[in-house]
Design goal:
alpha+beta
């Protein structure tokens, strides 16, 4: 855990090598620059060494600096192409860890591997990639958890560390108790089924907004929801007005109307910047942010404390957008 957090807080080749050493004793550190891979996009292309699997297959560890600021979506194709080229040219490694980083210390930690033919013969033309984008000021819970428990001596276990299925299962295992807690906290009714339905509606809306903010459609802020909550919390936490005074205007006025409509609340005013962001939010024009009879008109709400607990849980995971 310590080596992973050190790499996240202060990316360097030394910290990367130290992490791999911590994960397996079968890592052979052999560091040198591969000059021919440097380009307009990449510099300091460094071969860091190789690690041996239990069946004696080899994996490479490779790092390169990205010459432009790295984002979750930027340059992935070029990075994948470079990784595939390295493996195809070498034809020595079944896979590799390819780490691309920028001046800020953000990095993409990718696993790229060759899939052999059914006969076992390799043509070095059928590759697959799994990847984590890691930033010191973003949630990295999954990356830390998966790498902490991963066994770097076995390739199948390394695949599990990158597996979306494993991550999804872990998310839903953690999601269930959070959902139950939210549902039990709903105020305004004693109907248990209504509580569950209302809690689910709240959660679906917040998860959807997680992807909307990732597209920078809410004030160009990837963390809009958390910042929205923090503004409220600074002045009004414990008054249990966040749902009715902040989320309700966001859901049913801001996101359910064309940009330009001013959005107000009654007793807990927004800051000027937040009011402007709500006024110019996109019109999502879907059923999700229309008031639902029997739910949104029934004076139901969720207490501040439970909303905070859910936001902390949900946004400890990193929302990933793929263009396809």
């Amino acid at each position: 855990m310590e080596a992973i957090e050190k790499l996240i807080k202060n990316f360097s080749i030394d910290n990367l090598v130290n992490l791999i050493h911590k994960k397996t004793k079968k890592f052979k550190h052999d560091e040198y620059e591969i000059m021919e891979l440097n380009s307009e996009e990449f510099s300091d292309c460094i071969f860091c060494g190789e690690l041996e699997m239990e069946n004696r297959d080899l994996m490479a560890v490779f790092a390169a600096k990205v010459n432009k600021p790295l984002t979750e979506r930027s340059g992935k194709k070029a990075q994948y192409t470079l990784g595939k080229k390295f493996l195809k040219d070498a034809q020595r490694y079944i896979a590799g860890f390819f780490i691309f980083y920028d001046d800020k210390g953000d990095f993409r930690f990718s696993l790229i591997y060759d899939i052999p033919l059914p006969s076992g013969r390799r043509q070095w033309s059928n590759f697959r990639r799994y990847t984590y984008f890691v930033s010191s000021n973003k949630p990295n819970k999954t990356f830390i958890q998966q790498f902490t428990k991963a066994d770097f001596n076995d390739f199948n276990n390394i695949l599990k560390a990158f597996s979306l299925d494993v991550v999804t299962d872990e998310f839903y295992n953690a999601f269930k108790p959070n959902f139950d807690s939210i549902a039990a906290s709903v105020r305004g009714t004693d109907n248990e089924e209504l509580k569950k339905d209302f809690a689910l509606l709240f959660i679906i809306r917040i998860i959807f907004l997680g992807f909307v903010q990732k597209k920078l459609w809410l004030n160009k802020d990837e963390d809009f929801i958390l910042n929205f909550w923090k503004e409220y919390k600074t002045k009004y936490f414990g008054k249990d007005l966040f749902y009715s005074e902040w989320l309700t205007p966001l859901f049913f006025d801001s996101l359910n109307s064309p940009p330009g409509r001013k959005v107000f609340n009654r007793t807990t005013p927004f800051s000027e910047d937040t009011a402007s962001a709500l006024q110019m939010a996109p019109f999502l024009n879907g059923e999700l942010f229309k008031e639902k009879k029997g739910y949104d008109d029934a004076d139901l709400f969720i207490p501040d404390k439970k909303i905070e607990e859910f936001l902390e849980f949900l946004f400890s995971y990193n929302f990933t957008i793929e263009e396809n």
